[in-house]
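Subject: mismatched residue count in predicted assembly?

I count 614 residues in my input, but I want to confirm that the predicted structure covers every chain. Input:
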Amino acid sequence: MPVMKNTCFVLLLLSMFTLSCTKDKVDEQYTFFRPVYATRETVKANIKSSAPELLQNPGKLVIKDNILYLNDLDKGIHVIDISHPAQLQQLAFIHIPGCIDMAINGNFLYADCYTDLEVLDITNPLQITVKQDLPGIFPHRFYNNFMADTTKVIRQWVRVDTVVSHRFSETVNYSPRKEWMLFSASSAAMTTTGAGLGIAGSMARFAQLNQRLYTVSSDDLKVFNVTREDKPSYVKSVDLQNGNIETIFPYTDKLFIGSQTGMFIYDAANPDQPVKLGQFMHNRSCDPVIADGPYAYVTLRSGSFCGGVSNQLDVIDIKQLTSPQLVKSYSLSAPAGLAKDGKLLLICDGKEGLKIMDATHPAAITLLGRIPGIDTYDVIALNGTALVVAKDGVYTIDYTNPAQPRILDRMLKTENK
Amino acid sequence: MKKISLIVALLLVSHIYSQKTNQSSTLYVTPQVGLLNGDHAVSAQVVLSGGMKTRTWSYGIGAGVDYYKIRSAPLFIELKKDLGKKETPLFAYLQLGANIAWPLSSDYRENVYSSWFGNTSTRFQSGMYRELGIGYTGWYTKKKGIWISLGYSTKTMAEFYDEVIYPDFPPYDRVTKTERKLAYTFNRLVLKIGCRL
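Triage response: the counts match. Full output below for your records.
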């Protein structure tokens, strides 16, 4: 009898226990980025020269009068003296949250601060101040379905490692993470089309031509009248009719716009009313573009959000702007920014480093020299000295002997110090 | 946790073995087929275990294939106790061990996550297996018999993804690489039928 009693008890206990506990459990451990907000007033008050800071995410760059303005993605701008390329010297740092793009006109630097355009007086790099603030110019950024609080400014992103639990049958919540991001930037080719303008790179989304500032976002081109350098005024927005726009490069009175699916040529003879002239479509990929003489040079890069499988340099004949023709494609590793200096073509080819090529004959471009060992992203070529942004920092490279380029100096980001 | 469980099980087995060595014992082999009923899913497992049986205790090892949600191969130590002082039809059992991940191609969540720009790889990590239950033996002789049992089983494993976070705005190709871990715990009721050979 006691055995039966015990057995019944065990049976009862076991059945109660098991029937209530057959739910699956998935502990999902992942990483996301959470925004840290600040009030607009606090952010604006802090946009000025302050003590130099370490590089974190080197981005786009602009050069003016031996001063390099190097964007630190979403954080601000480093002010660096490059008078002596072999001895880079940090002068100051300007805190501009959300800053990715820059352009310089005379003594004024235009920079984005998320949706706002800031005009900074850079007459004295050590005492840079905000001259004008044009709020709400650029579209709000979307972070894969996460919409930021637009009444405030995202000051920084904090990495968060977390674990959430759900049942196996519930779909894993991949891309629409509620708070995540992001990011990053980098930049520069050789964009200068007038006296007093800064030299920017091929990854730039700001360009200047005929006293106009042109900015591209994903699907539009904005025009600003910068006749008065210190007071840019918004003119209009031109629908580019193609999404996924990435870069803009001004050349003569034309605008070369790079997108993930092709290169578009706009005529800016009437500076307030750019008109599309032609286009050159290519496989889907990231593609900065520069132009020089009768040729445009486009690099295609796969393996990122842009998609695609192409990693190459396309040389395009633009004698007929309405119908650009491919001259030749050159296979590369993971090309990004590029710059032209006379007959030389400098290409950032990802982990293969900086490549210096002889582009005397666009149909027969040959490799002259290479700086390996750095994951390059964009370059400005300045009469024998290249300013190169790489994943780990910024470099000055002497290419006066193209066959044997050499690193003059480097400024590495925090983790590489 | 898995290691601790295995150590406890080994100690338990050795303890019982040391107590029973003076008793007469026989070898047994039991093929088993189980019906697994869990969270909105029914599946099956096939297991073979074998070991030593003393008067009221059995202890052995076993392995099998478990198709519940993500295929795996449990590898375990088994303890069985006839309820009562003498051999009776009723028994309780415990299986404790490792759950070796052996996913079918359809078990990978890769298909869920991959997108047109293809950005992930996935891999599995083995986990723990445990089962506790009671059973009833019918048609049995001293050495052979057919039994059914009802148990509560848990198997764990983990799946990992290399995850790439892309920006939604240009430049698009500066990415953040992270790892996503999905730690699975599957709890099921197990209805088994087996025979002692």
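The longest strand of chain B covers residues 145-165. Marking this ticket as 'not a bug'.
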